[in-house]
């Protein structure tokens, strides 16, 4: 007798037509928290100091585990033998396509974790730590969970008894970030994304330059849409998740997504040339050192030639390693360099406190 192994990775799935739902009747809240990428380096830095392991699991068909609070009826799909004119389906659990399905799944997972002695961080609801097991942290992104801990296997068995999971094992690729473990440190980089972006624009063999943008270059919006939008800027945003040296360039180019011109396109090409020379840059987190926090902030006063607004930039170091950084245009015009610097310092203080 020949036994055939059947793969279920590719399968048909019944999806709801969420676009036909009516607000306040079929659903109320729809926002579901997801893991913020800037909180991941902090967890990696903390895990490196304490010698914790990094593992990753995936919940299979996660949305189907979440009960629904609202009564929702579904038309019977074509191909089923039931009379579609006389009968309909009542949903007991969330299915893919419902507007409230992501929130229902998050609450289902969070409620179970709270019952097992986990507590969510106030400002980062997708980062949880265990109160009864020391040194066990979770980072949740929808149905993917990164686990940081010294003894992870008991938790894996516990969550496997509640949900159907896929155990990925030691995490060498965390949410698009490549993790490499060494005896003295842990490194994070996204070289694969950088190489994909260069291949997309045929820049794999271009001549590299030393800066992400030209020095003292001030871009302004084009009078009309001279070119299509930067399709590859999304890749650039993702690759800046481990390369803070790209933060200012990505922030500057992102301002012209709706009005790109020839100058913006040339600046984007210059950005690609810089990536060609720095594809393997990333973050390094040492396993030794003090658990101290050092922060820096700066502001470029009035650098936006159109709105005369300033640019905020700051970074936070934990154990001598960069964990949080940000570059953004300030929402209001500053009357002096001192005012711009204080606004930047205020943003930094809020980040450190929360």
TrEMBL record:
Q: Which Pfam families match?
A: RVT_2 (PF07727)
Report the InterPro entries cross-referenced here. Answer: RVT_2
Ranges for the Reverse transcriptase Ty1/copia-type domain?
A: 9-214
Note the PANTHER family from the entry: GAG-POL-RELATED RETROTRANSPOSON, REVERSE TRANSCRIPTASE TY1_COPIA-TYPE DOMAIN-CONTAINING PROTEIN
Q: What is this protein called?
A: Reverse transcriptase Ty1/copia-type domain-containing protein
């Amino acid at each position: 007798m020949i036994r055939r192994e059947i793969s279920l990775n590719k399968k048909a799935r019944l999806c709801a037509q969420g676009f036909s739902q009516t607000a306040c009747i079929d659903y109320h809240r729809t926002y579901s928290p997801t893991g913020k990428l800037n909180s991941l380096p902090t967890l990696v830095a903390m895990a490196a100091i304490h010698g914790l392991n990094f593992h990753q699991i995936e919940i299979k068909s996660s949305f189907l585990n979440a009960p629904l609070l609202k009564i929702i009826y579904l038309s019977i799909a074509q191909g089923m033998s039931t009379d579609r004119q006389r009968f309909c389906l009542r949903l007991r659990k969330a299915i893919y396509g419902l507007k409230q399905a992501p929130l229902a799944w998050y609450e289902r997972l969070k409620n179970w974790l709270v019952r097992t002695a986990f507590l969510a961080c106030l400002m980062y609801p997708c980062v949880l730590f265990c109160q009864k097991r020391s040194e066990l942290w979770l980072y949740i992104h929808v149905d993917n969970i990164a686990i940081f801990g010294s003894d992870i296997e008991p938790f894996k068995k516990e969550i496997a008894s509640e949900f159907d999971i896929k155990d990925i094992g030691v995490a060498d690729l965390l949410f698009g970030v490549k993790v490499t473990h060494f005896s003295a440190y842990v490194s994070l980089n996204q070289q694969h994304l950088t190489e994909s972006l260069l291949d997309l624009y045929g820049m794999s063999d271009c001549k590299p330059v030393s800066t992400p943008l030209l020095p003292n270059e001030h871009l302004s919006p084009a009078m009309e849409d001279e070119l299509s939008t930067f399709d590859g800027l999304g890749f650039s945003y993702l690759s800046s998740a481990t390369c803070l040296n790209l933060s200012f360039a990505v922030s500057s180019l992102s301002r012209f997504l709706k009005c790109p011109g020839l100058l913006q396109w040339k600046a984007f090409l210059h950005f690609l040339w810089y990536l060609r020379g720095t594809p393997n840059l990333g973050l390094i987190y040492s396993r030794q050192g003090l658990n101290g926090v050092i922060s820096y902030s700066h502001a470029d006063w009035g650098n936006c030639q159109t709105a005369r607004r300033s640019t905020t930039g700051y970074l936070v170091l934990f154990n001598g390693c960069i964990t949080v950084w940000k570059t953004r245009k300030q929402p209001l015009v500053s009357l002096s360099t001192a005012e711009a610097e204080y606004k930047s310092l205020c943003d930094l203080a809020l980040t450190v406190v929360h």
